Amino acid sequence: MTNQAALVLADGVVFYGESFGHPALFPDELTLDRSLGTGEVVFNTGMCGYHEILTDPSYAGQIVVMTYPLIGNYGSDPKWNESGPEKGVSRKAVKATGFVVKHLYRGPVPPGRISLHQFLQNQQVPGISGIDTRRLTLHLRDRGTPTGVIVRIPKGKNELSRSQLKEVVTFLNAFPPMEGRNLIGEVGTAKAASVHREGGKHIVLIDCGTKAGIVNQLVTLGVRVSILPSSVSLGEVLNLKPHGVLFSNGPGDPAVLGPQIELCSRLIGKVPVFGICLGHQLIALAMGGRTFKMPFGHHGVNHPVVDLRDGRVYVTSQNHGFAVDPDTLPAGLQVWMKNANDGTVEGLYHEELPVRCVQFHPEAHPGPLDTLWIFKEFMNYT
Amino acid sequence: MPARKDIQKILLIGSGPIVIGQACEFDYSGTQAVLALKEEGYQVVLVNPNPATVMTTPGLADVVYPEPLELGYLEEIIRLERPDALLPTMGGQTGLNLSIQLYESGVLDRYGVEVIGSSIESIQKAEDRGLFKELITQIGLESPRSQLIHSIPEAREIARELGFPLIVRPSFTLGGKGGSIIREPDQLEPLIERALLESPSHTALVEESLLGWKEFELEVMRDRKDNAVIVCSIENIDPMGVHTGDSITIAPIQTLSDEEYQKMRSAAIEILRAVGIDCGGSNVQFALHPRTGRMVVIEMNPRVSRSSALASKATGFPIAKCSARLAVGYTLDEIVNEITGKTASCFEPALDYCAVKIPRFELEKFPESYRELGTQMKSVGESLALGRTFQEALNKAIRAAEFGFEGLEELTVSREELERMVTTLHPRKIFAAYTLLKQQGESVLEELAKKTAYDPFFLYEMLQQAELEHQLSRKGITPELLRQAKAYGLSDRRIGKLTGLSVEEVFAKRTKEGIHRTYHFVDTCAGEFEATTPYFYSSHGEIDEGKPLENPVVILSSGPNRIGQGLEFDTCCTLASFAFRSLGRKAIMVNSNPETVSTDYNVSDRLYLEPLTLEDVREILKKEQAKQVIVQLGGQTPLNMAEALEREGYEIVGTSVASINATEDRGLFAQLMNQLGLRQPRNSMASNPEEIWRAVKQIGYPVLLRPSYVLGGRSMFIAYSDDELKEFLQRHPQITAERPVLVDQFLEDAFEYDVDALSDGENVYIGGIMEHIEAAGIHSGDSACVFPPYKSEPEILQEMIEATVKIARSIQVKGFLNIQFAAKDGLLYVLEVNPRASRTVPFISKASGVNLVESAVKIWSGIDLKTQGLVRENGIGVGTCITGWAVKEAMFSFDRLSDVDPILGPEMKSTGEVIGLGESFGEAFAKAELSAGTILPTKGKVFITVHENDRKAILPIAKELEALGFQIAATRGTADYLFQHGIFPEVILKIHEGSPNILDHMRAGRIQLLINTPLGKYSQREDGYMRIEAVKRKIPYTTTTSAAAAALEGIRYLLEERRVPKSFNTAFAFKKQ
Fold this sequence. Notes:
The complex is a heterodimer of chains A (382) and B (1073).
Chain A: E1 5-9, E2 14-21, E3 38-44, H1 50-55, E4 62-66, E5 70-71, E6 98-100, E7 103-104, H2 116-122, E8 126-129, H3 133-143, E9 147-152, H4 162-174, H5 184-187, E10 193-195, E11 202-207, H6 212-220, E12 224-229, H7 234-239, E13 244-247, H8 258-267, E14 273-276, H9 278-286, E15 290-307, E16 313-325, E17 333-339, E18 345-350, E19 355-358, H10 373-379
Parallel strand pairs in A: 3-4, 4-6, 5-7, 6-8, 11-12, 11-13, 13-14, 14-19
Antiparallel strand pairs in A: 1-2, 1-9, 2-8, 3-9, 10-12, 15-16, 15-17, 17-18, 18-19
Helix pairs in contact in A: 8-9
Chain B: E1 9-13, H1 25-39, E2 43-47, E3 63-65, H2 71-81, E4 85-87, H3 92-104, H4 107-110, E5 114-115, H5 120-127, H6 129-138, E6 146-149, H7 152-162, E7 166-170, E8 180-182, H8 188-198, E9 204-208, E10 214-222, E11 228-236, E12 249-251, H9 258-275, E13 280-288, E14 295-301, H10 306-315, H11 319-327, E15 354-360, E16 381-387, H12 390-400, H13 415-423, H14 429-440, H15 445-452, H16 456-475, H17 479-487, H18 492-499, H19 503-512, E17 517-521, E18 535-540, E19 553-556, H20 567-582, E20 587-591, E21 606-609, H21 614-624, E22 628-630, H22 636-639, H23 642-647, E23 651-652, H24 657-664, H25 666-676, E24 683-686, H26 689-699, E25 703-707, E26 717-719, H27 722-731, E27 741-745, E28 751-760, E29 764-772, E30 785-787, H28 794-810, E31 814-824, E32 827-834, H29 841-848, H30 852-860, E33 876-878, E34 885-891, E35 912-918, H31 921-931, E36 941-946, H32 951-963, E37 967-970, H33 972-980, E38 986-987, H34 998-1003, E39 1009-1013, H35 1017-1022, H36 1024-1033, E40 1037-1038, H37 1041-1055, H38 1064-1072
Parallel strand pairs in B: 1-2, 1-4, 2-3, 4-5, 18-21, 19-20, 19-22, 20-21, 22-23, 29-33, 36-37, 36-39, 37-38, 39-40
Antiparallel strand pairs in B: 6-9, 7-8, 7-9, 10-11, 10-13, 11-12, 12-15, 13-14, 15-16, 17-18, 24-27, 25-26, 25-27, 28-29, 28-31, 29-30, 30-34, 31-32, 34-35
Helix pairs in contact in B: 1-11, 5-6, 13-14, 14-16, 15-16, 16-17, 18-19, 20-30, 24-25, 31-37, 32-37
């Protein structure tokens, strides 16, 4: 098999493979305005759940590497989308900017599904297969997560020329790094929407790129959910007289989300405030804490999280590259949960105020459903 | 919570001898439990009569009782030891059932023994199919529609409701024993009857057929804080209908979406919660309808299992060790993940490879039992391989299973036969499916998916290999195709076959292209954290991890269990690794058997889970830059590589290859025997039928015929007459110069002996001499034997010692030496010399109190036997039994293999072994029999039917039995003879003589012991039905006069009604006196 595509990392490391999904750009087609297939390269250790991962809004701006080598085995639901679920608003399904696998399954899929190749083609996202994802993962683990791009190899060639490679690396180094990137506008809703109007309690969801699962879980609990754009003003939120405000997950660096941090800090004390993933980071920042970029983040479905109240450990679904620095937390804001592996902050609570948030994804999709109770826990404070 | 302080002494029950369905996975789990509990500071009392295990090695547990796994002995041990707690979950179904018995009989209460690891209530909830089903319904899950039945009429009723086919599962049996598929009404009665017979509670579940549904297993751990993790998910490539132990499986699950998987995951945890498993691991099985997605719960095992051993090896998560820790009070978050050394055990391993398991059957040995697989497990072993593609893992696993396939290969059978194979549950179904895919391409895939019920995913990936193979055959060996073929796990031999090249040519080609294996860590976390525990598998064309160790010794183990090469060899390898490491030497283990202790990554400095083939081993040696290889511990598998490895420039540790050849090559061996003045049975080699006839004329009947190059005496044959010889020749038409037949004088009525010895080239230590209880002609692996010899001439024993010393010195044995002798009419014959560790090394080590493997390792490390203190001034030492007498009895799995005549012969059939220790021969024998599941009667009726030649020998035994109060019954001929000599037996008809005949009597429970000595292969067959019935009814039977005499001794001991447990440790004290 001749090489059809390459994954180039900003540090000059190249992996050659076969292309699938949407055709990638040729090296000379790349510009900062035309950057299909470019993003921070992160690895996910989940062994299935690829269409949940691809359509997770928090992967905006990232190329996802699956560490599990056999991907695409059960096909794809052509309509799958983890964002939404407001009616009449169609959001882009696949948020990841590229997909990297060791072995892509290209055979027949169950009725009603399409192949993963077809799915990515429809969603205009390039993929590359046949590469040594183990080598790549160890590289990312040891050296951090650089910007990378999937490019097409010009016809008749098997590799990129030295000058092409140089060109691509120059492009990657000019590309904005994840630290400092604001991506929530790309994936969050632009228009307000309301779900389950007949619900009892009313929660405002500040949509920085929410996963549908979050909304669905609230609805399951009989909650009315108002989904608001992340650019919403304090007044607009308070006018709705919600029982609580939940800051959603989302992509990018939380530290640069000035208006959202501001909104959050002004809401705290007025209404109960909750957060998931990016929302959790926003709460920490709003109360004076700091966040930092992790070396390679947590992306997977097997991360153990300890609830410090009773020592219970939950297996959680995670997807984040930034974390809250526990040494910067203001008085009153306490660590609720910790990662059992690396000790990073996985949840916060306030001693007096109704403020609760978690770093992981209790709504799962993909991943274990063991922490669905978090939503109930939130509602206990409304 | 940290470890409990209120308990100090813990009783652990092992699973006993290896049988189909309960094999060395429980040595692995038991050994892990022992080590974990010892690390936590507890005293461990272990009961397990299986001497071949690692777990029973003195020095691991505090006390080891190799006593029968039976209520009486257990109670006596509990009375003596007064343990605080009992851990019932490590010894398989045997351990679990015995624990329930101890509880129900009040023993645990009486001695204040607490059950830890799993409560009796939970065990009952999980094991009682009725209770379990109720519980599943309560938590909103679905079970197959079914009903618990107690009788045949009840079964008929439910059959009317559910229709056929139906699945029958007897309650409380292991390995699905007694289970079956009823396809039509006619089969209902016999199959239900058998199921009810097998079930200790005489109940069985009759359920709707889920044939063709997808089958999945989850390995779950849960602790008292309700923390729960799925260690491993397993998908059975073979659909429902084939016992999971017989299925080809893959981990993790491949064909479920996250939604489907999470539903199953949550259900599994909910089931553990409902059953109440809160300090250990369990296995939960699901079936999923391939189209509707309906999910039903099949069963759960509230203990460690074969699947949990597999899961531990597939993921690097030590389930048994963790379970033991949970049982004494820890929670999952308090246990560190050993592999990463820093993360917690309360997580779910993420794999970045797939792990394929292949079962190994004994198709050649028991063809009649393997026409079709079913719900009763029939495989005797398995191999596991990890790979970065499905093809790679599959091909490696098939190759590693060592049943003659290099990997996925096409079969050369007719189209009709292929069709039959893919539409039934044929043990070679996957090969038939591959053949059709390769012949017909993608067009056949959909239809094949329907016929085989394999998920299209697997078939499509198999098709990819077929297409690559077509290209290879067409285009030859281009570098690109070669790379692809290696990434798919094809062996050099397979590539050579496809391209018309020799193995060496393929090897040369890929060396030129620099295509070698690369190795990855098994790290439980898909590379997220750095691994500190070295457990490796190979891939191709990827990053190579791990630097070579400094001057390591590489131990080649024995691969999947099979009849003739089992746990004993694996134990030798494990003990060698321990010994090398305690001497400060780095040890590397190579093995592909996921069940064993040797593939525990803690056993060695490094573990390579790889096939034991020359190609795979060579690559490991290259990677490690190793010089020294151990081939004499793992049985025939590594020994077969010795010559080639030496040619490659590697040092074969111990006895030289030339010496090995001197014992294996017939001509050289005869020469050696001549030189040393030793006697062999008259023998000859024949490469065509005429030569055989000529040889037999010279040697005289009876003759032992051995086709060359067979393992475990396969196809061996004793001919007593021209007719029998003719039949042999008919069955073996392809005798050639390359595949000759050895013709030996058969020493009928000889006494046979096995000697296990060690030598450093000069000094010789004889670990022990064992005398076979079974008569000559029965494979040594199947014969009960006694150490030291019973009623043997001291002169003959002395002659054996001298012969052993002569042989060891003349061929410069460095390490192990096993010799088989026979004595007849005062003459000693040397039957066989094997310069390697034999099957009986663990038995002799334990019975004599000398760890022979450790001693061998010391020899290889330059510490001679004199320095070790094992030999006297004359350079000779001889071991003695620690309690006076030790009997080894073979364990068979005939009851799992329907329609197999349990008659013993020169071809090995046993799957395991037990030991009985005693101060008298009778005690040792009675215990060994009891441990092997044979309950010798103390009253009742003995049925005797013996060959004319044996009548004289049987007479005193019959008299003795009568004097002990037994009634005697016999067939007409035997009865006449007994009558003439003063016994008045009841005459019972043979089956063809009318009825009621012997079968009716057996069925009615009127026979307690069967003494039957057939003679000659063909007269043997006539009595087969009797022995088959005896196996079914669990009636003890003997097939030789010497065994009958031994049974008599055992009965005498039982009549004394004493139970004196012997431990290996108290036995040491006994020896010192």
